[in-house]
Write a structure and sequence with these properties.
226 residues, Rossmann fold, seven-stranded mixed β-sheet
């Protein structure tokens, strides 16, 4: 009975506005710091490492565009692992990008200011769940076009376990109120593996490989071009 209830409750994506998108800088910063902490300590960076290892070698020299980069922790992670990486961070919010390393660019993911094949690797982490399936299809098509070698997507997996995590650990781990509020919304809006694979197919990316990572409850999609 309980399993059936939760299966039904999380059967569909539900997308609602998040507070971070409309907060002034002084209120947004604690939430952004929480997101970095979540990525570092609870599997987000580990998933990115594993996805990157599928498309580049440790000594490779390559360019990478991180879309929806927020505070730039992905850029710092990748540069620490791959000394030959040149990582450009792109986000629509100047507040989000305050702490991001250079080079960084304010821009709209739906109107990327780059020609096709401009970067060896294009990636996006914890970004696509904000949008409808139709919008994600458009985004993936554009992201894949800008990539020369591969497109990487890392995001949340929709499940009861990550949904409960932030609220139940708020006092213990000191999460900001906005982190808990937006975290619940993000998990409800997240994909499951077969859903992400299907929107990639609709975007014309037939070779997309989607893996589920537990206990992080993250999805990683890798679509190589060569």
């Amino acid at each position: 009975m309980c399993n059936h209830f939760f299966t039904t409750l999380f059967a569909q994506r539900i997308i609602k506005p998040e507070k971070l998108d409309h907060l002034p800088a002084e209120e947004a910063r604690p939430n952004l710091a929480d997101l970095v902490r979540i990525n570092r300590r609870f599997g987000g960076h580990s998933v990115i490492r594993k996805a990157m290892a599928q498309v580049v070698n440790e000594n490779d020299r390559f360019t990478l565009l991180d879309i929806g980069a927020a505070s730039g922790d992905t850029a710092r992670l990748i540069r620490g692992i791959y000394p030959g990486a040149s990582v450009t961070s792109l986000d629509h919010s100047s507040t989000n990008m305050e702490a991001a390393p250079q080079p960084k660019l304010l821009g709209d993911a739906f109107q990327l200011p780059f020609r096709n094949g401009s970067f060896d690797v294009v990636m996006s982490s914890l970004f696509l769940h904000h949008f409808t399936n139709e919008q994600v299809t458009d985004l993936l098509r554009a992201f894949y076009a800008v990539a020369r070698r591969a497109l990487l997507i890392c995001d949340l997996e929709r499940s009861i376990f990550p949904y409960l995590f932030l609220a139940t650990t708020k006092k213990l781990l000191g999460w900001h109120d906005v982190t808990v509020h937006d975290g619940l919304i993000s998990v409800r809006a997240a994909f499951r593996g077969h859903e992400l694979r299907e929107v990639a197919r609709k975007a014309g990316i037939a070779n997309a490989k989607v893996e589920t990572h537990r206990p992080a409850f993250r999805l990683a999609m890798v679509a190589r071009k060569a």
